[in-house]
Amino acid sequence: MRKFVQATCILAVCGTAVYAQTFEVATIKVIPPGERRQPVIDPKPGTLTMRDVGFGELLMWSFKIGPAQVANPQVAMGPERFDIMAKAAGPAKTDELGLMLQALLKERFKFAFHRETKEISAYVLVEAKGGHKLKESMEDGSGVLPVSGGRMALSGHSATLDQLTMFLAGPLRTPVVDQTGLKGRYDFEFDLTDYRVKEHVDGEPPPDPVAILQSALPKQLGLRLESRKMPIEMLIIDHIEKTPVEN
User: Fold this and answer.
1) Measuring CA to CA, how many Å separate 137 from each of 141, 180, 183, 185?
2) How far apart are the first and last CA of the chain?
């Protein structure tokens, strides 16, 4: 019993050490109006490069949540865009980089928040009939990122499914929760280019993102969405400065 308690204490200390990590070096550049470019989020072991990102991307990526899980986005969302170059003291993994970015937001933007749980309508991600079609990965990759080159697609490189739900929540404007039970990391590509409507016909309603995802997810990834009313943890922004503390 004594050994068990000692081991538990060691694990707790190690966990605290990981969660307390901050970037060794980090620079934040405010992008002047009119200099917009294609947003880039490029995590590598120990480094994080973000180009032309706003508070929405910063919150989504660091907390691994969709925009609908921010209860008061109007407090932070605005025209401000940033370039961020950050380096950890060691080869930190993607999840650790996200925690370090949270610490950077607190330090440079004086970001403060709390959480509340609310019963709301949401979608859960589950396996489709026949099982998933994901390729398991043992590496620590970049997670889920948009594919460039004019395609409407997502690329998953050693990604977790909660990283995928973060992106699915965007067009749905509703929280998406992973309930597949799949806890590994996976490689996949999710391409919706063929579903994009090239020309809108006058008088016709726009394409339904729910219908598109319900059609594409089972075919490409072996996953599907179910609508449910459930308790969802919401992030409430208490304070944020629009101009970061100087580097």
Assistant:
1) 9, 17, 11, 5
2) 49
The residue extents of the domains of the chain are 2-239
| pTM, to two decimals | 0.77
User: Which strand (E) or helix (H) includes residue 106?
Assistant: helix 94-109
- Inter-residue contact 87 to 26 (CB < 8 Å): yes
Q: 38 or 210: which carries more pLDDT confidence? A: 210
The confidence score (pLDDT) of residue 47 equals 94
| Burial category of 94 from C-beta neighbours within 10 Å (exposed 0-12, middle 13-18, buried 19 and up) | buried
Quote the distance between the C-alpha of residue 143 and its chain's center.
9
CB distance 42 to 57 below 8 Å: no
Q: Quick one: pLDDT band at residue 75, thresholds 50, 70, 90? A: confident
3-state secondary structure at position 122: strand
Angle between helices 2-19 and 94-109 (to 10 degrees): 60
- R_g of the chain computed on alpha carbons: 19
Q: Distance between CA 194 and CA 192 in Å, rounded? A: 6
How far is Cα of residue 17 from the mean position of the Cα atoms in its chain?
A: 23
Question: By three-state DSSP, how is residue 181 classified?
Answer: coil
